[in-house]
Structures are given as structure tokens and as C-alpha cells.
Design brief:
The complex is a heterotrimer of chains A (about 475), B (about 475) and C (about 100).
Chain A: E1 2-13, H1 52-64, E2 68-69, E3 72-73, E4 76-79, E5 89-92, E6 99-108, E7 111-124, E8 128-132, E9 135-139, E10 146-152, H2 159-176, E11 188-198, E12 208-213, H3 216-235, E13 243-248, E14 253-259, E15 269-270, E16 277-278, H4 281-289, H5 295-304, H6 309-316, H7 319-328, H8 334-351, H9 363-374, H10 380-392, H11 397-403, H12 412-425, H13 427-434, H14 439-451, H15 458-471
Parallel strand pairs in A: 12-13
Antiparallel strand pairs in A: 1-10, 1-11, 2-6, 3-16, 4-5, 4-15, 6-7, 7-10, 8-9, 11-12, 13-14
Helix pairs in contact in A: 2-3, 5-6, 8-10, 12-14, 12-15, 13-14
Chain B: H1 9-17, H2 23-36, E1 42-45, H3 47-57, E2 70-74, H4 101-108, E3 112-117, H5 151-158, E4 164-169, H6 175-181, E5 184-187, E6 207-212, H7 215-225, E7 255-259, H8 269-284, E8 288-292, H9 300-315, H10 334-345, H11 348-361, H12 365-390, E9 393-397, H13 415-418, H14 424-429, E10 433-441, E11 444-452, H15 457-471
Chain C: H1 5-14, H2 24-38, H3 73-77, E1 88-91
The chains are: A alpha+beta (about 475), B alpha/beta (about 475), C mainly alpha (about 100).
């Protein structure tokens, strides 16, 4: 039986203020060749600098991914000619990657599985190329932007596992705050290696690489396609050659880019321009101690608070939402807060394309909102009218309530008058109630709410209505 | 007419301070000399800028010893807005957009840059003959090589075209031409002088250093260019000392080692005799001088070939016809752009070295050759370090012989390395070393090699100055010996 | 280690150098002379397992994460022969 061996390589741009080996800004801009120094252009005579913040960020990734740390590390030069590589070599870490032999944990079919991580290395990005008619245009804004390359061990068994691995990796790096990890913007780039072998064979099959896959779901699709394609060829008795392919998003197939006739000859050697970096125990524990709480720990906390899985998933998958939630979760009813945040608040934001960072709803108003709902000062329905105003305008919740004139009717005398009026108009409902049909209460509640334009306090109304019906 | 530029820097400084002369007098005299010289020491002259700078300095206080002193710069040191060619067709029209750190330091002291000196192409060579702009002539005898790769810097100081100059030394490129031209050349401790703006040949070996007429003036220039630089991570954070501080202090009690390897039969006997004469003087003065064996010295050349050429093959990959430098006019795709640009832009010596460098890093060779070389380099450095546990200095000849006729070695791929036989080990260990004239073989200067412990340039100058004073050689080419 | 003609062409290719047919022999001889010399390092007795990358003993040299001086577009393009003012231009490198 043929079984696949899958490994995934990910390049992630780190969001330090400046580049890794120069002091140019590390920023994205539509204007080309704006954040460039003589170092980024590989000018004769220039030497690399080394951005300490990049080491800190890579170190936090290595720790979060349970890696062993190369405490004495140096950089290496990877030599090859390509127009996007100004110096003719890339500064990377070949011999002493900052982290090695780590893992992350995915959950597949309810079971936990560790996916081994072979190495994490610090390296520099290349120029961005734009290919036009007969020409390639080079933009050096990206040259020297810090990257970490995270290489999984070849232990992934399915496309689904690969996708789960990537989602998990993305989540960890996002919560570490070291990268935007946006595949569509190129701050996370994924390559997959797939080979097939007989399940009992000790030797790996021919490795085929799929380069720069555009989304995590395409990683899954492309691996599954590639597995099928290779299987068919092998069963036909064909011999595969090492090659690099790309995923075609229109046909959902992989397409040959180039065959690797001879192995690449990168002529690695240690970079003499950068002295050894020695990561002391103190340095490592300082990074450890200042690491933000990661998603897994937050999930566990939310579960313990009784928040449902769907809401947890929604909150965790949106880091800005999660950060907001973290500022209120300990100060209010966490379950109600999660419900309101993931439904009304997020719904309105998404519908109106508002970023969480741009919303006016602050934590004080949000905490009061939950409190008012829970004590019945406002109904859920009224909350729906209040929330958009709180998101859009810099007003306190009390101001909004009085502005919208949606104070609830909690006065029992007023409510009793309306209740009896409605009961009188609906004798059938009263009969239904006597037959033990609860929907009669629901129906009458609805009618009363209509009459009061939703302002009746539901708790009080419910109590009074039941009492009044029982008297009939 | 008084030749002001032939006075010592200390004397010039006095005249400038007393307003007896102005910087412009030095500059005009310098260019007058250069324009009547035919040794091809310069690739690019900076005449207009130098004159402007000299006039600008007239309104400034003479605030330091190097104020207004003309200086020549090897053409592999980057100068903003002043053509920097590395003596290669590849950079024939290259106008840099930044200044090397040493250039900033020179400008801070208000020294005046008079031009960029000729050299072996990309500092690869030991005769000056690999320059795209033609060889520099040796001021002592126009039929022999001036040495290299800092050929123009050494020759210009030797012939009085510049008072001081900067060179660079990867395997002997300051010391060997200094020896052949009869001037003082110092390769400082690796990391003492920032390499930022030095077009890299072999990053772990390269070092910028001063070339001068006298030991004292060499120390004065080292004072200017030394120091930590945040643009060069390998530059030392160690505090800079005044390198003249031990000059004129007695040398009695100094412990000096003479490696047997440096006095072997492979070295010309007249050269050895000159060194022996110095040894006798030192012994008379109360120094301990002992012959010793140092392991691994005989591996210097093959070791250099692996390490220097591997690094060079990587450092020179940036010359691809895209962002700067020569571009072939003959290409239709990127591969042709690379190959034609580099084949037309580089000379033969450079190409040969780039091929060797690529080879020793290629595939399994990275392990077989390169890693082996890095281990051997450690052994060689340790062997040299060990000497300094017991001795203050090492001396011997700088070269196996004096300057030889043009054309002798140009087509021999190997022999060009053999000039660096005695100078390379120092670069491998990162130690400081200097060459100074101590005699002549017929009419050609002989260089003494003084090797110091890390950051002990001051002790080397102390010894050098003493020897210089004792010998009182007449070091004007064409004059009396 | 002696290089044959094919290997000479291969190292020339690695270094992105074009060698004319008539030059191969010359380069082959010269390279092999040097490689014969280089092979002498295998005679050296090595007792250390510590490589020497650079003679400096300084460790942990780095810069803070602060922007320091970038080039103007004009400066970037100053020595670029093929540019449209915004981009550096090379012959198209992908065919698809």
C-alpha cells in the first residue's frame, strides 16, 4: 500500500520595526523602493547589522513551538544568483538554527497529535518581483525583511493534517504577536513536500514540492490532488522525478514549474560578518516570562468559564476580538459577554466592515450592557438597537438608552393594564393556556411586546402575564 | 622652492598652526607632483574637491595634528560621489552614494583626500599588475613591480605624491607593497578599524590600514581611523589607545621571537642578512631575541586559497549588472546578463579566484575543504597566539625577496600567492603586523615584518620607531642609499 | 583533486562566468595547479574540533530596532542602468 509522507515549510515575516540586517523600516507600502538602504541593495562595502528584536521574536517562536534552542548560534550564507537577491547570497541559519526538534499539537477527529518541527531559522526576505511583458520589475522594500522559516518533520499523513498544522502554527505566531501571518498578503508563505512510499518501505519516495500555496485550504486540496496524481503515476509503473510544482487555483490541480535535474548547490558557509550570538539562560527566561498568553491556554480558560465551543472558536479565531474579550471577561458574566460579543457585536462589525480597533464600544459600556440585559433593564431586542449606536458613537450606554427612548416599562400597574387588554382581545389564547399549551403565553407575550414597542420588561411581563392568565 | 609636503606631519602642523602655510599650499604642491609623475599610482584624482576643501579649511582652526594633511585612498574604499573602481572594469564608472566609516573619520579630522589609488583588481594580486587601469610602477625602479594589492597607495607615499595613504590587507596587501616600495605599512588587529565601506574581498581577513613614510606618521593615521563602528558588527568595542604613546620609550627588555620558518633557505639571503642586522641591534639594546618554531605556518598558502577565495566568491556575487557597475550590452535573459556582465567585467585573476572559491564550497567540498580549512585556521591562530604567551613581538622579513621585474608571475596562477607566504598567517589569526624598510638589495628596499599581539600596535610602533632611528635610511627613491 | 573540462565548466557556471572554448585548457591547468596546492591542507594534523569563522572573540553584537537613514529613490537608482525611475528592471525571470 502506498502511503504519503508530507512535510510543510513555512516562511513567516516578522513585524519588527526595522529590517533584520539593516536599519531600514520594515513596512509594506504600495510605493516601490521606499524603505531601502545601501545594505538592502547589497552595495559594495556594506556589512549586515543585526536587529536584536528579530532574535527576540524568533526566540519566542522557538519557545512556543517547544523547540530546543541553539544557545550558541551563527548565521550562514546561502549562495545563489537570482535578481531578487541583491548580494548574491541570503543570510540565513543553516548549521545552527535558533530552534530545532520541537512540535505543536493538533486535534484531529477528537484526538490530539503532535506534529514534529525540525527547525526554525532566522533569515532575510528578498526583493519583491513583478513580472510584466518581457520584464521583471524589482522592488527592494521587502529585501531584508526578517523571516523565520519553520520546517515540519516529514510526519504529516494527510492534507487535512497539513491544514490543521498550518492553522495551529498560524494561531501560535499570531498570539505571540510577532507576525500578521496573512497568507494573502504574503506575510505567511507555505510550501509542501509530498512523497509516496510503500507503507513498509524504510526509504522515502521521490519528493515533489508544491511552492507558495495561496491559502491553508488550498494546501489541503493541493496535497490531496498531488497524492492522487502521484499514486496514479506510480501504479502505472512510472518513475517520478524530483520537481517543483505550483497549485493552480482555477483548476484545483498542481502544475509543473521545473524539474530539479541536479540538487541545488547553495555553497553554504558561515557568515563571517556577524559574530556569534550566545543565548544565555537569562535571555531565554526573560523572553519566556514576557510571552503573551497563547490561544490554547485561553481556550482552556474559556471552557472552564462555561463558554460554549462555538463562541470560543469565534473569539480565538479573531485575535482583536479575543483581546477585547480578555479585557472584560473577568469583570462580567463571561457567558453572556461571549454571546453578545460573538453575535450582536461581531455581526454588526462584519456587516458594516468595521475593524474592532475602530469601534467606539469600550469595555465599560460593554460591561454595563451585559449587566443591564441580565437585570432586565433592557431586553435583548433593545440591546440590538443599542449596540450599533455604541459601536458607532462615542456615547455612554446611559446616554444611548435615553436618546433612543427605550427605557423599559417596569411599572406593574401600566403593564397590568396592557396585559388585561390583550388577554381580553384573545380568548382563544386563554383557552389554549387552560389546555396547558405554553405557546399561548409566548403568543400573548409577542402581542404585548408589539403593543409596547418592545419596551416591556420581559422578566416582569412574564411573571404578571402568567399570574393574570391563571386568574381567568 | 620649499617642498612642504616633504616635511614631517608634525612640522607641517606647526606651519599650519602658525599660519606660515595654508592647506592649499600642500594641495597644489601635491597635484603638481602627481601631474609630473608617471608611475600610474592613481586611478582617480580628486583635485577640484581637494582644492575646495583646502580653501574651506582656511577659515577653520587647526584643531588636530592631521588637519589639512593630504591623503591618498586605495580605490576599494568607498567614497561618496568620488568614483570607486576597485581597479576593475566592473566598477569603471561606479560613483558611490555613501562614505566608508574610515572616510568619515578622515573627513572629521579635516584631512584632504587627493585621489583614489591604483591596486590589483578587487585587491586580488601582489604586483599591481591585475589592475584594469594598468600597473603602477615601482618608484625605486620602473622595471620592477611595486607589490600589491595596495600598489598605488604604497608607491604614492614612496614617491612623495601623498604624505600618507590608506591601503587594505587580506593576505599581505599593505605589507608586501610597503616592503617593495620602502615605506611603513600597518595591517592593524582585525576588528580595530571598521570595514564598513571597504569593498570586501575576504571578510574574515580584510583590514584597512595606514601607509606612511615613517613609523610615527603611521601611528598618527591609525589614531584617526581606529574605533568601534555600529555599522560593522565585527569592529571591536575595545577602547582606542594613543598609538604614539610608546614611541621614544626605551625597548630594553622586549622579548622578541624570530620564527625559523621566516629565516629559512626559501628566503633570499640578502633579505635575511638585513633582518639579522636588525636582530643584532636589538640584542645590543637589551632585547631578548630567540629563534622559535611555530606550527602550521607552512599551510598558509593553501589555507588562504580555501578561505579567502571561498569568501571572495560570495562577496563578489553582488556584481551582477543589476544595481550598479558594468552591464554587458549583450544579453537577452537573466543568465546571459549575469555571465556576460561578469565575464566582461572581471579580469582573469579575479575569474580564476572566483572559480576556485565556488569549487571549494560546492556540494560535499563545503565539508571536505572548507570545514577542514576552518579547523586548520583555528590551529594556526592558536599556534601564533601561543607565541605571545612568552614574547612581545615576532619579527622576520616581510617577503621572501625584494621587488621583481614586471611579468614574472602574471601568468602563473600559483606564484602570485607565494608572495604572501610570510604575511598570510597574520591575517588568519587576526593579529596586527607591519612592514618597515630596513635595508636594500642593490637599489630595492627590504622590508622588516613586525608582528604584534592583539591590539598591541603601540608596542610594534615602539620597536619600529627605534629601528628607524637607528638605521636612519635614506628612503627617497632615486636619491642616495 | 583534478578537475576535468566538464568540472571546469561547472565551476565557471557556479560563479556565473562564461568561458570560451579556447580558454578551457588554460583555466583547467591553472585551477588544477591551485587545487594541487590546496590539497596540502589534508596533510595537516588537526587536534581541535573548534572552527574559526572570524578572528574576533566578541559575541552578541547587534543593533536596536530603530530606523536609521534610508535612501531616496534618486539615490537608489543612481547606479542602476536599467530603471523606469520606480523599479529596477531585469529581463523577465519566469515564463508561465
Amino acid at each position: 500500500m502506498l502511503v504519503p509522507t508530507i512535510g510543510v515549510e513555512v516562511h513567516v515575516e516578522l513585524k519588527s520595526n526595522t529590517k533584520v540586517f539593516s536599519s531600514s523600516l520594515n513596512a509594506f507600502d504600495n510605493e516601490p523602493n521606499k524603505y531601502v538602504s545601501v545594505i538592502d541593495l547589497g552595495y559594495p562595502g556594506t556589512l549586515p547589522k543585526l536587529n536584536k528584536e528579530v532574535i527576540n521574536m524568533a526566540l519566542s517562536a522557538a519557545i512556543a513551538l517547544n523547540c530546543k534552542i541553539n544557545k550558541v548560534m551563527h548565521f550562514d550564507r546561502k549562495n545563489y544568483f537570482y535578481p531578487d537577491l541583491p548580494k548574491g547570497y541570503q543570510i540565513t541559519q543553516n548549521k545552527t538554527p535558533i530552534g530545532y526538534d520541537g512540535y505543536l499539537e493538533i486535534e484531529i477527529n477528537g484526538k490530539k497529535k503532535k506534529i514534529g518541527i525540525e527547525r526554525i531559522q532566522i533569515e532575510e526576505d528578498t526583493c519583491k518581483s513583478i513580472h510584466v511583458e518581457g520584464k521583471t520589475l524589482l522592488n527592494a522594500n521587502r529585501a531584508g525583511v526578517p523571516l523565520i522559516e519553520v520546517v515540519s518533520k516529514p510526519v504529516i499523513e494527510t492534507g487535512e493534517e497539513a491544514a490543521l498544522y498550518l492553522e495551529k502554527l498560524r494561531e501560535i505566531l499570531l498570539y505571540l504577536g510577532i507576525s500578521d501571518v496573512k497568507i494573502e498578503e504574503g506575510s505567511m508563505r507555505c510550501d509542501a513536500n509530498i512523497s509516496l512510499k510503500e507503507h513498509d518501505s524504510p526509504e522515502f519516495g521521490t519528493k515533489i514540492e508544491i511552492k507558495n500555496i495561496g491559502s491553508i485550504s488550498h494546501v489541503k486540496t493541493s496535497i490531496e490532488y498531488e497524492e492522487k496524481r502521484q499514486k496514479e503515476l506510480l501504479l502505472k509503473g512510472e518513475i517520478l522525478k524530483e520537481e517543483t510544482r505550483r497549485f493552480d487555483e482555477k483548476t484545483l490541480t498542481t502544475v509543473l514549474m521545473r524539474t530539479k535535474e541536479t540538487g541545488n548547490d547553495y555553497r553554504y558557509f558561515p557568515e563571517p560578518d556577524i559574530p556569534y550570538v550566545v543565548l544565555s539562560e537569562e535571555w531565554i527566561s526573560e523572553i519566556k516570562n514576557n510571552m503573551p498568553i497563547l490561544a490554547d491556554e485561553l481556550k482552556e480558560k474559556y471552557r472552564k468559564l462555561g463558554i460554549n465551543e462555538n463562541n470560543i472558536k469565534t473569539i480565538i479565531s479573531n485575535i482583536s476580538l479575543c483581546k477585547f474579550f480578555e479585557t472584560v471577561v473577568d469583570k462580567t458574566n463571561p457567558i453572556s459577554a461571549a454571546n453578545i460579543l460573538t453575535s450582536e457585536v461581531l455581526g454588526y462589525l462584519n456587516k458594516n466592515y468595521i475593524k474592532i480597533s475602530d469601534m467606539k464600544l469600550n469595555q465599560d459600556n460593554f460591561i454595563k450592557l451585559i449587566e443591564y440585559i441580565n437585570i432586565g433593564k433592557i431586553s435583548s431586542k433593545q440591546a440590538k438597537d443599542i449596540i450599533p449606536v455604541l459601536i458607532e458613537k462615542e456615547l455612554s450606554i446611559d446616554q444611548v438608552i435615553s436618546e433612543l427612548k427605550i427605557e423599559q416599562i417596569s411599572d406593574e400597574n401600566i403593564l397590568l393594564e396592557i396585559i388585561n387588554k390583550i388577554i381580553d382581545l384573545n380568548p382563544n389564547a386563554v383557552n389554549d393556556f387552560k389546555d396547558g399549551k405554553y405557546r399561548a403565553v409566548k403568543f400573548l407575550m409577542g402581542q404585548i411586546m408589539k403593543e409596547t414597542k418592545g419596551q416591556a420588561s420581559p422578566q416582569i411581563l412574564n411573571k404578571l402575564l402568567t399570574e393574570e392568565l391563571s386568574k381567568r | 622652492m620649499t617642498r612642504y609636503t616633504e616635511l614631517s606631519i608634525i612640522e607641517i602642523n606647526k606651519l599650519l598652526k602658525n599660519k606660515e602655510i595654508k592647506p592649499i599650499d600642500l594641495v597644489l604642491e601635491t597635484f603638481e607632483k602627481i601631474e609630473s609623475s608617471n608611475i600610474n599610482a592613481f586611478i582617480t584624482l580628486n583635485k577640484e574637491e581637494a582644492i575646495n576643501k583646502a580653501i574651506e579649511l582656511e577659515n577653520k582652526e587647526v584643531d588636530n595634528i592631521m588637519f589639512g594633511i593630504p591623503i591618498a585612498i586605495k580605490d576599494n574604499i568607498i567614497t561618496k560621489n568620488l568614483k570607486t573602481t576597485c581597479a576593475s572594469r566592473m566598477l569603471e564608472d561606479f560613483i558611490p552614494i555613501y562614505d566608508a566609516t574610515v572616510i568619515n573619520k578622515i573627513k572629521e579630522k579635516n584631512m584632504i583626500i587627493i585621489g583614489k589609488t591604483n591596486m590589483d583588481e578587487f585587491a586580488m594580486g601582489s604586483t599591481g599588475e591585475t589592475s584594469y587601469f594598468g600597473a603602477t610602477l615601482n618608484p625605486w625602479d620602473s622595471t620592477v613591480v611595486p607589490g600589491g594589492s595596495s600598489s598605488g597607495s604604497a608607491a604614492s607615499v614612496s614617491s612623495g605624491l601623498s604624505i600618507v595613504a590608506l591601503g587594505s590587507d587580506t593576505g599581505g596587501s599593505i605589507r608586501q607593497p610597503s616592503s617593495f616600495c620602502g615605506v611603513v605599512g600597518m595591517k592593524p588587529t582585525y576588528s580595530r578599524v571598521s570595514r564598513y565601506g571597504l569593498v570586501a574581498f575576504a571578510s574574515s581577513l580584510d583590514q584597512i590600514g595606514p601607509i606612511s613614510r615613517t613609523v610615527m606618521e603611521n601611528a598618527l593615521l591609525l589614531n584617526v581611523i581606529s574605533g568601534y563602528d555600529e555599522n560593522d558588527l565585527t569592529s571591536s568595542k575595545k577602547e582606542v589607545i594613543d598609538y604614539t604613546r610608546l614611541i621614544n620609550k626605551g625597548i630594553k627588555g622586549l622579548k622578541i621571537a624570530v620564527p625559523n620558518y621566516y629565516m629559512a633557505d626559501t628566503i633570499n639571503s640578502e633579505v635575511r642578512n638585513s633582518v639579522r642586522k636588525v636582530i643584532d641591534i636589538l640584542k645590543d639594546e637589551g632585547c631578548t631575541v630567540e629563534n622559535i618554531d611555530i606550527d602550521y605556518l607552512d599551510y598558509a598558502i593553501p589555507l588562504y586559497q580555501v578561505i579567502a577565495l571561498a569568501e571572495a566568491s560570495s562577496n563578489l556575487a553582488r556584481f551582477d549588472g543589476i544595481r550598479f557597475g558594468y552591464v554587458s550590452s549583450n544579453f537577452t535573459n537573466v543568465e546571459e546578463l549575469y555571465k556576460n556582465t561578469r565575464s566582461e567585467g572581471f579580469g582573469n585573476e579575479v575569474k580564476r579566484r572566483l572559480m576556485i572559491g565556488s569549487y571549494v564550497l560546492s556540494g560535499d567540498n563545503a565539508h571536505k575543504y572548507y570545514e577542514k580549512a576552518l579547523l586548520l585556521r583555528r590551529e594556526m591562530a592558536n599556534a601564533l597566539k601561543k607565541v605571545f604567551e612568552k614574547y612581545d613581538l615576532i619579527i622576520g622579513p616581510t617577503n621572501t625577496d625584494v621587488a621583481y621585474p614586471f611579468g614574472t608571475k602574471i601568468d602563473d596562477a600559483l606564484k602570485s600567492f607565494y608572495d604572501d607566504l610570510l604575511t598570510i598567517p597574520v591575517n588568519m589569526a587576526g593579529l596586527p603586523a607591519m612592514s618597515m624598510p630596513v635595508g636594500f638589495k642593490s637599489n630595492l628596499p627590504i622590508g622588516l615584518h613586525i608582528i604584534g599581539n592583539y591590539f598591541k600596535e603601540d608596542v610594534m610602533y615602539q620597536l619600529g620607531h627605534f629601528i628607524e632611528n637607528k638605521l636612519k635610511l635614506h628612503l627617497k627613491p632615486g636619491g642616495e642609499k | 583533486m583534478k578537475l576535468n573540462e566538464k568540472q571546469v565548466m561547472h565551476v565557471a557556471d557556479l560563479a556565473r562566468l562564461k568561458i570560451e572554448e579556447k580558454e578551457i585548457q588554460k583555466y583547467q591547468n591553472q585551477l588544477n595547479d591551485i587545487l594541487t596546492e590546496i590539497d596540502k591542507i589534508f596533510n595537516a594534523k588537526i587536534s581541535t574540533d573548534e572552527i574559526l569563522i572570524s578572528p574576533i572573540e566578541q559575541i552578541n553584537c547587534y543593533n536596536e530596532d530603530i530606523e536609521k537613514g534610508m535612501l531616496s529613490r534618486e539615490e537608489i537608482m543612481k547606479n542602476v542602468k536599467n530603471t523606469n525611475g520606480d523599479y529596477i528592471i531585469v529581463p523577465r525571470v519566469v515564463n508561465d
